[in-house]
Every structure is written in structure tokens, then in C-alpha cells.
What we know:
A: 112 residues; alpha+beta; Alpha-Beta Plaits; 4-stranded antiparallel beta sheet; two-stranded antiparallel sheet; 20% helix; 37% strand; elongated; B: globular
Amino acid sequence: MKMMTAIIKPFKLDDVREALQQIGINGMTVEEVKGYGRQKGHTELYRGAEYTVEFQPKVKIQIGISDHQVDAAIEAVCNAASTGKIGDGKIFIAPLEQSIRIRTGETGEEAL
Amino acid sequence: MRALTGIWRGKARWLIALMAVSAGASAEEISAADTAWILTSTALVLFMTIPGLSLFYAGLVRVKNVLSVLMQCFALTCLMSVMWFAVGYTIAFGSEGVEQGKYIGDFGNLFFGAITKDSVKGTIPASLFAIYQMTFAIITPALIAGAFAERMRFSAMLIFSVLWLLAVYSPICHWVWGGGWLGAMGLQDFAGGTVVHISAAVAALVAALVMGPRRGFGTVAMPPHNLTLTVAGAGMLWVGWFGFNAGSALAANGTAAMAMLVTHLSAACGALAWMTMEWVRHGKPSVLGIVTGMVAGLGTITPASGSVGPAAAIVIGLSAGVICYFATNFLKNALKVDDSLDVFPVHGVGGVLGTLLVGVFASTQLGVFSGNGFSTAAGIENMGGQLTVQAIGVVATFVYTAVATFIILKVVDMMVGLRVDGDAETQGLDLVLHDERGYNL
């Protein structure tokens, strides 16, 4: 099992959700986050007072997936979240030791 | 001898005629039209402070201080009303039928003692005049609150404002409008360039200097927390200003209507000018910029609104937008003064500019830019004479306000301390001073 974390542009969330659903991934957890990478912040100006806002608003998606889904999931997210412009985001894949469905007590891939 | 008697007889006839006129004046009747308009104007000017100015300021501070600013404006509205009733009004205007001193009014109207249902001032009830002027005595101290926002102790703010109303606003109001020395010199200040805007703005600047900047000023970002509130408040200020300027005619007549027209044009031009300055210099027109330009245009036309025509109002508005824009940048970025909500560069610079420009645009010799004439009753015949008196008004207001405000601030600092402590400032005044938060979303 893998834990997939994708940081994407906020307005791409619906496209990404649809793309993942089409390859059979039917659940996700989403957070609104802020950060920066190559895409730097912007400046704001209020009556001559200039402020640099370093962090960009992004959406972070976390999904637990089985090993055989990894490549398809990466492809789906990449296609759906891409605009070709700087700041499209990143995908991180990490090993996932265990998963448990709280209601039934199922574990492992059954619980994804 | 016969010739002398003849002259005396001539003089006597003139004197008798004059007495008849003044007897007629003392029995002047109330005009229903004038009364209706000033009743309306009174409501409009109160509306400028609550909620107009309150919202305008509230949106500009950080989220942790939004209630503290609303509270300051609201509490000032209540407290200044009572102080005006008790002492302020009589210092400013004294009582009817009493010769007024040059510097303060007589004390015949302590606790509105000489005002009854039937007393008359001009063509309106004296009670109406008193409450109309009360709304000015409310908004002027409230304007100052923008300079010390986000760091002043609430109790200190209340004590400061009471002392300031009685020692600064009321006397200056007397000098200009209450029969005092500036009015007698022929100073043209129709609705409060000196009395309201310069006095409030100089007090704001002194307060900002005495109290020092907010923690982190210049290094920590302090963007406005809710500009939609600010824009809503700005719109209310614009509407309310009609009562402020056109109401200052104290009558429903051509002067009032022209004051409303020039007020509106100046607001529009001030807004456009500021917007354009930002667009040219920074690449984008900002919402805060356009509404700030509007306030600059309104503040600047205020002293001139009874003296100038519409073409002059365009010039006054445009110059207000440009000059106040540069003043704001200069004060903040070059002088590093934390006049938190830019009271001085907008109201002070605008007030000075407008008061001086009256000396130019009151002239009847400027073609389409002509105004209503110089103060001939005070012996002023030309532009140089009027400009001199206007400059004296500006300097006198500036210097007196600066000195008196400085002393008051030092006294209040000794009594209760002006600033909250550093931790309280970091946590925010809403929680520390009022045990509340502005938004529980």
C-alpha cells in the first residue's frame, strides 16, 4: 500500500477528483494549505504600504492506494492537475504500513 | 453748526433704521424648510460616524482589533454627545444675545441652559443648531482614532477625547464659527477645514508620534482585514457628507444646493485622481485607493464648499487626490510615522489644501472657475488678502492643536498610560480590552 499526497492548484480539485474516480479510487481527504516552491508569492499594496505575501494557497489531497494503482493514479493526477504553468504542484508517494476501516475493523487493502 | 446737526440727524436716521433691522432680526421666525433640511442633515452627519467612519476604519485594521475600533467610534459618539451638552457647546457658541469673546464663548449655555423649545438660532430652532453641531463634535474626535488604532488603552482614549473636545475642538470651533477672532478676520471655512479636518489630523499626527508605532511596524505585514467593510463605510461617508457640507448652509437654499454639488464633484475627482496615480505608478488601480481618494476629495472641498463653484470643485478634487496620495506615501515610507489609518495625510493635508484654495477660488474674477467672493464684510478685497487670512487660520489651528494635544497626551499618559502593553498588543485589543472577538466563523 502507498500513501499518495498531491499538492495542486485549488481550482483543479474537481478535475482531479473525477479523474481518480474514473480509475476506481473512490475516496480522498482534502485540505486547504499554503506554501511555495518555484512559484513565489505576490505583493500587495495598501496606500503605499507594500507587503510580500510569500505563500500561495494550494489544495492538498491524501489518498491511500494499493500498489498496483500507483502508476495509474499518478498519471490521472498529472493529467487532470496540469495547466503547463509554474505552480501546478507536486505528488509524493510514501509507503503505507497499515490501514483500518473503523466501522468494520477490516485491515490492509480491504480497508482502502 | 447747522451742517453738523444735519450730519447728526442723518446718522440718527441711519441708527434708527439699523435698530429696526436688528429688532426684526431678533424676532426672526423659524423657517420650516430650513428646519426640515437641518434635521435631515443632522441625521446624515451622525450616520457618517456610526456606521460610516466606524466601518471605514474597522475594515482597515487587523482582524484582532476590529471590535476595538468599532467600540472607540461608538463610545465616542455617546461620550462626546454628553460632553457637548455639558460644556462643549457653550465654549464653542456661548448663548444668544451675548457678545462673544475672541477665544471662547460665554458660559450661559452650560448644560444647554439657555436652550428651550422656543429658542431660535438664525432661522432654525436653537435646539436643532445645538444637535447639528453636536454631530460635528462627535466625528472630529472619532477621526483621530485612526491614528492610534490597534494600540491605545480604551480608558486613555476616553479621557483623551473628553479633554481634547473641551480644550481643542470647542475653542477652535468658537474662533471660526462661534463669533471668535478667525471668523471676525474673514476666514472662510464653510464646513470645517480648520475646525474639523486640520484639528483632527494634527491631533492624529501628534498622537502617532507621541505613542510610537505599532509593534512590528515596517517589518510585519499589517494589511487591512476586510476591505469590503471599508468600501461600505466609504460609501456611507460620501452620502453623509452631503449633510456635513450642504447642511452647513444652515438653510435650505442655493448655498446649500451648490455646496452639495461641489462636494459631490470633488469626491468623484479625488477618487479618480488617486486611482489614476496608483494605476500609473504601480500598474493597478486599487479599491482602497479609489475610496481613499474619495475621502481626500471630500475633506478638501469641506472648507471651500460654500465659497466655490463647480469648475473649481473639479480642480480641488483632482489636486486633493494627487497631493494626498503623495503625502500618504511620504509619511509612511519616508518619515516612517505610523499614523495607522493615514488620518494626517488625507484629512490634514486635504484640510490645509482646501482651506488655502478657498483664497483662490472664492474670487469672482476667474471666469468659469469663479466662486462667491471674498470676505468683503471683514474688509478683504483681493486674493492676497483672503489667502493671508486663510493661511493664518491654517497656522493658528495647526500650532494650537499640536501644542494642546501634546500636553493632553502627556497628562493622560501620566494618569492611566496611553498604550496597552506589548503582549496585549500582540494578542489584539478585542480579546484583551473587551473579552470578545469580531468574528466567530
